[in-house]
UniProtKB/TrEMBL annotation:
Aldehyde dehydrogenase domain ranges (all copies): 5-451
Pfam families to which the protein is assigned, alphabetical: Aldedh
Keyword entries, A-Z: NADP, Oxidoreductase
Family statement: Belongs to the aldehyde dehydrogenase family.
Gene Ontology molecular-function annotations: aldehyde dehydrogenase [NAD(P)+] activity; succinate-semialdehyde dehydrogenase (NAD+) activity
Superkingdom to which the source organism belongs: Bacteria
Record-given protein name: NAD-dependent succinate-semialdehyde dehydrogenase
Length: 454
């Protein structure tokens, strides 16, 4: 019998195993979702939003339990896991409050027709392929607007967080959602090819490779898709920035979720006049981070999610060092047990190094100097990724003037990049396409239907 295994990355212990769904199991779930869609889409929108409020309440009531499950399965510091549950509940409340406005039929007069309007009708089954790094948030970010719009969802979660997937399914059930509206597929990614023809849309958050693979399937079967892929976000510090504030925020921006975030700052592009002072403050902040048991509230850096991911990260650092980069801090695994990696800073990079081009998924920061604003923009854009960016400056008008030239889905001024239910989220270039959250997110998987009466 094929199984999926959950391993605690802090202890290397097997937490739980899960039987993979058979083809018959998968077909049963697809058929159930299809039947549920016929009923779910016909419910009054107010009923669907009431259930979202119930889901928010369920999340808050089980906050400690859900946070602990996340931390045990993928190593997230417990304080961040608790915040993740809160954010999921906030998202449910946001769409409960705003879905009616976002989905309201729009009247668009057009002579000679007596009536011209645009409706936003659900599509059907949305397949969600989700990653392990934010095992609750990524799922809710995709599911809540899709369900609010009247779609149903089948989740294929990362195989190392299967308990998270099943708990999320149970949350929707406890909140009162009808059976089949949200279901979980326990299967390896290699079997998605048989699922894609059965669904009406696809959303994926994950690696660039996973995105390319699923996009190919979506293209073959003509399914609309939203892809939120990797990032190598630039963090630009201009000469007039408050260096201490910029450095303090740089530590948080790089090490959120132990550095395992697509929108974490990864490339720190610092004006040469303040480069040394920034680097000293940044190094001190990174060095002071508390590494340890992610279940302890004081822990700031937990393990990476798997040991193979740690080896990939260390390979990038080793390659940089071998090709002339300076390892300012860290550059090594810590503890014999678990998948821990030390907070690391690397400078004197150049384009021949893998770290210059690849996404470092862990607490590894690359620092580069610049002399003119145009050079900072060039360095920021010298990446195949385009997810987020931040600019730190005393003259905010100058920073705002730079923002249109940054090739990214979002640019934050004097703040770290983060997703917000009220604003669209997504990237360009190899960071994917489409948008989640806000108005754009709920309209990603609807039939934008023109209705006219002559």
């Amino acid at each position: 019998m094929e199984i999926l295994t959950s391993i605690n990355p802090a202890t290397d212990e097997t937490v739980e195993t899960f039987a993979v769904h058979s083809p018959a199991d998968v077909q049963r779930l697809i058929d159930g979702a299809r039947r549920s869609f016929a009923h779910w889409k016909s419910l009054p929108l107010m009923r669907r939003t009431d259930l979202l409020r119930s889901a928010a309440k369920t999340l808050r009531n089980g906050k400690q339990k859900y946070a602990r499950i996340m931390t045990i399965e993928m190593g997230k510091p417990i304080s961040e896991a608790l915040a993740e549950v809160d954010k999921c509940a906030l998202l449910c409340d946001y769409y409960a409050e705003n879905a009616e406005r976002f989905l309201q039929t729009e009247i668009r007069p057009s002579a000679p027709f007596r009536h011209s309007s645009v409706r936003f009708d659900p599509l059907g089954i949305v397949l969600a392929v989700m990653p392990w790094n934010f095992p609750f948030w990524q799922v809710f970010r995709a599911a809540v607007p899709a369900l609010a719009a009247g779609n149903v969802m089948l989740l294929k979660h990362s195989s190392n967080v299967s308990r998270c997937a099943l708990e999320i399914e149970e949350i929707f059930r406890m909140a009162g959602f009808p059976d089949g509206v949200f279901g979980t597929l326990l299967l390896p990614a290699s079997r998605l090819e048989s699922v894609v023809p059965e669904v009406q849309a696809i959303t994926l958050t994950g690696s660039e490779a996973a995105g390319r693979s699923l996009a190919a399937l979506a293209g073959r079967f003509l399914k609309p898709a939203v892809l939120e892929l990797g990032g190598s976000d630039p963090y630009i510090v201009l000469a007039d920035a408050d260096v201490r504030v910029a450095a303090e925020n740089a530590v948080r921006a790089r090490c959120v979720n132990s550095g395992q975030s697509c929108i974490a700052a990864k490339r720190f592009i610092v004006h040469e006049k303040i480069y040394d002072s920034f680097l000293d403050l940044f190094r001190a902040g990174m060095q002071a981070l508390k590494i340890g048991d992610p279940l302890q509230s004081e822990t700031e850096i937990g393990p990476l999610a798997r040991k193979d991911l740690r080896e990939e990260l260390h390979g990038l650092v080793e390659d940089a060092g071998a090709n002339g980069a300076r390892i300012v801090l860290g550059g090594n695994a810590v503890f014999e047990q678990g998948a821990y990696y030390a907070p690391t800073i690397v400078d004197t990079l150049h384009p021949s190094m893998k770290l210059y081009h690849e996404e470092a998924f862990g607490p590894v920061a690359a620092v580069l100097p610049f002399s003119e604003d145009e050079e900072a923009v060039r360095l920021a854009n010298d990446s195949r990724f385009g997810l987020g960016a931040s600019i730190w400056a005393g003259d905010t008008e100058r920073a705002m003037a730079m923002a249109p030239f940054i090739e990214a889905g979002s640019v934050f001024i004097n703040a770290t990049v983060r997703s917000d239910p009220a604003l669209p989220f997504g990237g360009i270039k190899d960071s994917g396409y489409g948008r989640e959250l806000s108005l754009e997110g709920i309209r990603s998987f609807v039939n934008v239907k023109t209705v006219r009466l002559l």
